[in-house]
Amino acid sequence: MRASMHWHYFQICRKNYNEYQAIDDKMDIHRLSDDEEHIKQMNISSLYSYREQIVLLPIIFGAMCLEAFIYDYGAQHLSGAFVKKHVDKLELPSKFVILSKLVTGNDFPTDSQAYEGLIKLKEDRNKLIHFKSKTFSESELDKLDEWHDNMNIFLKNAMHNAYETVFNVMKELDKLHENNTNYYVAFSTDTECHA
């Protein structure tokens, strides 16, 4: 029996993905409320600040989930020593292509949404981990606002990609295993409280 963290990483990804959506809904409710304008703005500002923090979690933990999953996948079907020695230092998309080919004999489709999502997730994660700050002069505050707006668009798109890529990859692996695995079902099942 092997122990891995990929399921836990994905639960963090899922929880914060759903929380981001809930915050968007709450912001819309405040925008449409009958509250005084300054109250609306204070409530929206508070939610906006929180949303900016949690948007990072689905991206990072989606990537962590897939990294942990593919290592475990290779270790289960081949060996941990083989994966560590020959595959572990590769980029995430290459790990899926190589290990799924070695395990199933079938090619991971590099023309699929799953593969494109893996490429984008790798780029998005790297952009965040190796983030480069930018300087703006006092006369460029409008450019700072534009930069901030563009960053929010990037983060929202990266978050959606990370979340959807986990599902798309699991669907592709199920196909490669001729639907003899239930990776997609395992990831699409939400955790439940049995208390």
| Spatial gap, N to C terminus | 27 Å
Give the tally of structural domains.
1
Q: Helix/strand/pairing class, anyone?
A: mainly alpha
Mean pLDDT: 92
What is the 3D shape? Answer: elongated
| Oligomer state of the chains in this structure | single chain
SS strand fraction: under 5%
Low-confidence stretches: none
Q: Count of DSSP E strands?
A: 0
Secondary structure tally, helices: 8
Gyration radius, in Å: 20 Å
Order of helices and strands: HHHHHHHH
> Percent of residues in helical segments?
over 70%
Folded structure, characterized:
Helices cover 75% and strands 0% of the residues. The protein has 195 residues and is mostly helical. It has one domain (6-188). α1 packs antiparallel against α2 (37-54). It starts with 5 loop residues before the first helix and ends in a 7-residue tail after the last helix. The mean pLDDT is 92.
